[in-house]
Design a protein that fits this description.
The chain is mainly alpha-helical. It contains eleven helices and two strands, in the order H-H-H-E-E-H-H-H-H-H-H-H-H. Strands 1-2 form a two-stranded antiparallel sheet. Strand 1 and strand 2 form a beta hairpin. Helix 6 runs antiparallel to helix 7, helix 7 packs antiparallel against helix 8 and helix 8 packs antiparallel against helix 9.
């Protein structure tokens, strides 16, 4: 695979040869590693170049979380991906940037800056796509949702001159969050401590009701009765019917979404709790069943002896050892 067309040949393994053919050399090394994956004998060695070797899986409630450490084997992996970057750099330069620069007829200085910016555009674009992929597949989306909710509400209260109402609503929200995180810390210290979580569950629903009530009273009724309801951004007056409806819809939608998430998580925790309780109840069922079978067998054995001739008053029948106690005749 040749990335560039060259008219001049250089001595083999010379400095000029390596500089002008570094992408081809890197592609050959990468191809050797990929071929090594196809055979069982060399697959284990080939994986050293592709995957991190110092990973530890930690069990969690939702599954497993993989943590990575570092070590000397990571140098081989870094070297492999350096060759991958060199190959991609050559592909972008050969098939995209060189064709564009030939049509533009740039000077030498502009040509080097054009190549630098073109390579960095591809690098940053691929990095952005990878970062969005990580954001979607990991825990970051949940954190971003709450951060965006806070920013939207705080920015809306600031821009619409609703600072006092925003402070009161934030006070209620922060009090609920403080109780939740305090309950979580206590739960980490003592897993059987569920009292604070129960208190937080009750306070959470009441807080949602208070926030909705205050928003409706202040925006829906209080601002609607004011005389000046003209839209004037220079004076900071946004007291119009459309603005009030938008703010109320935003607050109601946010509180409804939070309440739905809360109910969904509570139902999931309750299902997990009752499944654990049912599993614990099924454990002692096996010994009880065995004991019933033993009693049943002993009763059948006793009834069989009852159909035979009764033994002598001081003789012990030939019964199994576990049935002697029930079959021994009483002293006359």
């Amino acid at each position: 695979m040749a990335f560039r067309r060259r008219t001049k040949s250089y001595p083999l393994f010379s400095q000029e040869f390596v500089i002008h053919n570094h992408a081809d050399i890197g592609f050959c090394l990468v191809l050797c590693v990929l071929i090594g994956l196809m055979f069982e004998v060399t697959a284990k060695t080939a994986f050293l170049f592709i995957l991190p070797q110092y990973n530890v899986s930690m069990p969690t409630a939702d599954g497993e979380t993989v943590h990575y450490h570092y070590g000397p084997k990571d140098l081989v992996t870094v070297l492999f991906y350096i060759f991958i970057a060199i190959i991609l750099h050559a592909v972008v330069q050969e098939y995209i940037l060189d064709k564009i620069s030939k049509r533009l007829h740039l000077s030498k200085v502009k040509h080097s800056k054009f190549n630098e910016s073109g390579q960095l555009v591809v690098f940053h674009l691929s990095s952005v796509i990878w970062c969005f992929y990580v954001v979607v597949t990991e825990e970051i989306p949940r954190q971003l949702q709450y951060i965006c909710l806070y920013l939207i509400h705080i920015a809306g209260a600031y821009l619409l001159n609703l600072s006092r109402l925003g402070l009161i609503l934030l006070l209620l929200q922060y009090s609920t969050e403080f109780l939740f995180h305090t309950a979580r810390l206590c739960h980490f210290a003592d897993e059987n401590n569920e009292k604070l979580f129960n208190a937080w569950a009750a306070v959470f629903g009441v807080t949602r009701l208070f926030i909705l009530t205050l928003a409706v009273l202040a925006i829906g009724f209080g601002l609607a009765r004011m005389e000046n309801q003209a839209f004037d951004p220079e004076k900071g007056n946004f007291n119009t019917l459309l603005c009030r409806l938008c703010v109320l819809l935003l607050v109601c939608a946010a509180q409804a979404w939070l309440m739905w998430r809360f109910i969904h998580s509570q139902l999931r925790h309750w299902r997990e709790y009752w499944s654990e309780q049912s599993a614990k109840r099924r454990v002692p069922a096996a010994p009880r069943l065995a004991a019933r079978l033993i009693k049943r067998e002993s009763g059948e054995c006793g009834s069989a002896w009852g159909r035979r001739a009764p033994p002598g008053p001081w003789t012990r029948p030939a019964a199994p050892p576990w049935a002697w106690g029930s079959l021994a005749p009483a002293r006359a």
